[in-house]
Design brief:
Strand order of the largest sheet: 1-2
Length: 438
Amino acid sequence: MATTMTITSGVQCDTDQDIESDYAHHPSELVLDAKPNAHYTSQDLKNAIPSYCFQPSYVKSLQYLLRDFFVAGALMYLAHNYIDLINDARARAAAWAVYGYFQGQQMTGIWVLGHECGHGSFAPNELFNDFMGWVLHSILLTPYFSWQSTHRRHHIYANNLIKDHNYVPPVKSKYASLLGVTLEDVEEMTEDSPIVTVGRILLQQFLGWPWYLFANITSTQGSLAVGKTKNPPSKWPLGNSHFNPTSTLFRPEEWHLILASDIGIGLMMAALWYASTLVGWSSVALLYIQPYLWVNHWIVAITYLHHTHPDIPKYEPEAWTFLKGATATIDRNLGFGGKHLMHNIADFHVIHHLFSRIPQYYAEEATRAIQPLLGIDYHEDKTRSFWRCMWESFTKCQYVVPDNPSAKPEVRTMVYKSGPAPPIEISMGRGGMKAKGA
């Protein structure tokens, strides 16, 4: 993949190092190689979108941010001052649960705005974006610069079975190895029992986000930083972590940014400790930690459902292009909370992968503008419930195989197959496929 790519915008990137370290240009400008989709190019899609959709506004973005903080603050104030006045224990517990759910969605909305900062779509100024993103993500115990670095690589290499960062499925041979069976036995295996599936879903939703930050699970060996992809992932604790400045995930010149991310989280943890001295740990747990667990859930669920669906392909490196990878995502519907509290992060995700610098408040308009061009390459699943979609993805999408095994890798796609879930993933590198020479 470290080949020279000539870009239509005039930008030229000679190596993966140049591509991954160039924050001045959008990924579509950096990896648009000579294999665009047959009936449109990235420039065609861009031309179909009104130009103002690419221009973030301080006023609009800050209005959304202030609204989010107002709603979150109001919910916290009402919960802290009034829920404990409810005499009935069951009603009081129910009130706290309702608070946690809606506050979790609103806190996820704040996280989404920090995510916008990481893409440069919150404001026109890079320094302002990074400062605001560092603050917002630190408040939610997310290492901003660390996540920004690996998330950028996910956007560059989305759905590439060697280099993607998020929810990369194993190929059939690796899947069989994980289960300890032969390739022939895989075809005979059935899905897990419902109780096992429920347990695995709950485990993913509860621990998936922090464990990704600590161990980079669901990603491939090829997702490591440039110069480290031919080495096996580190076996040391935190060796593949988003919190370690010397992690395999980062280039040496990024160490100070990773340290800044850690400092932000440290300051927030100190703030939580100080809050506990004022109101007690039980109040901190109910007011912050409970909705924070919902934030974990939504980050995992949204990312997983965007990239995991029986009809969404993955690609071997010979067949992969930026446009193929970016359009192999799916828009979902998360209802009122997804639209109004979480800023349409799930409803309009395809456009986000194609042009991640479009602010969230223009995502719907931009999506409508390119749908006629995308045609059958645009994917959405907005009529079914969230949990039905989660169940389908968790049972029908366990590993991938070629749609046409006899075809050459450069002209085929990889499609999902069902089966039992492999053993719980505790370290990175088991998904996808191994790069040649690695």
